[in-house]
Amino acid sequence: MTDTLTMSAAPGARPCGGRCGSAPPFEFTMAFQPVVDVRERRIYAYEALVRGPEGQGAGWVLAQVTEDNRYAFDQACRVRAIELASRLGLDRRLNINFLPNAVYHPEACLQVTLAAAAEHGFPRDQITFEFTEDEQIVDRGHLRSIVDTYRRHGFMTALDDFGAGYAGLSLLADFQTDVLKIDRMLISGIHTDPSRQAVVSGVLLIAAKLGMSVVAEGVETAEEACHLVGMGVHRFQGFFFARPQIERLCPDSEIHWDLVCP
Fold first, then answer.
1. Domain EAL: where (predicted)?
2. Other C-beta atoms within 10 Å of 114: how many?
3. What's the CA gap between 121 and 142, in Å, rounded?
4. Can you tell me the distance from the alpha carbon of 244 to that of 249, in angstroms, rounded to the nearest whole number?
């Protein structure tokens, strides 16, 4: 696999308050999975997902992340995603995952990202930072500070895997991201499951009242997608539309739009 990574910081960037340490002692690259907008019939964004140097899944990579290298790994993922997106000519939004517990000081830890975006000419207002509800957040005030800092610099933020993790609705009560990504656990079989339909309807109502856009994640069947369209969802991510592709951007022409929105 080409362009795998043993990472160093972008030139001239000061690492996260000097605390990010050396480059992570393992190689990785990125796959890109589309986030589609069925109303506009176009790909809205691409999420950058870590993969091993020989195509190993994210689990293989994340198993090598330790307390000693998680800060460097978090920074390396950001830079690598921006580098590859720029090289591949990405002209949509770029979604980058980050580890909230790896950010000591939001402003300092953002400098490597800002430097990478400037170096590669990638517009910062096309970047969305996703953090997962699945990672337990001890200090919500710190997380709010991260989100506020990213917004000041022109980035969007997204709460990923909503419905699968620790915080649930209480996290939304404390602060709101720009995007809410509903986890597959709430999406699977929704077309035949009244309980899931009721829960997702409630989530959509809350998101609308809080001014958050919604993405349904992990959509694997036309039936799930069609039912969600009927509920008012128009942005999706999942194997039904496109699988992640290593160092490649799936074009609009490869999405089977007519299966959902004839």
1. 6-258
2. 17
3. 30
4. 9
120 vs 259: CA distance, rounded Å: 37
Instruction: Please give the model's pTM, rounded to 2 decimal places.
Output: 0.89
Identify whether 237 is part of a domain: yes
CA distance 62 to 74: 11
For 86-133, write each residue's pLDDT tens digit.
Answer: 999 999 999 999 887 777 788 988 999 999 999 999 999 999 999 875
Q: How far apart are CA 180 and CA 161, in angstroms?
A: 8
Q: Which residues contact 223 (CB under 8 A, 6 or more apart)?
A: 191, 192
Instruction: Please check whether residue 112 lies inside any domain of the structure.
Output: yes
Query: How many structural domains comprise the chain?
Result: 1
C-beta of residue 212 within 8 angstroms of C-beta of residue 176: yes
State which H helix or E strand residue 80 sits in: helix 70-87
> Coil, helix or strand for 89?
coil
Q: Using CA atoms, how far apart are residues 80 and 82, in angstroms rounded to an integer? A: 5
Which letter, b or e, does each residue of 27-45 get, where b requires 16 or more Cβ atoms within 10 Å of its Cβ? bbbbbbbbbbbbeeeebbb
Could you give the 3-state DSSP secondary structure of residue 114? helix
Domain that holds residue 166: 27-242
The one-letter amino acid at 28: F
| Domain presence at residue 253 | no
Residue 201: closest CA among 217, 219, 182, 188: 182
Residue 125 in tokens:
């207002």
**Look-up: residue for tokens 């605390």?**
19
What does the block give as tokens for 184? 């597959």
Domain annotation covers residue 100: yes
Mean pLDDT across 162-184? 84
Q: Look up the CATH number of the domain holding residue 159.
A: 3.20.20.450
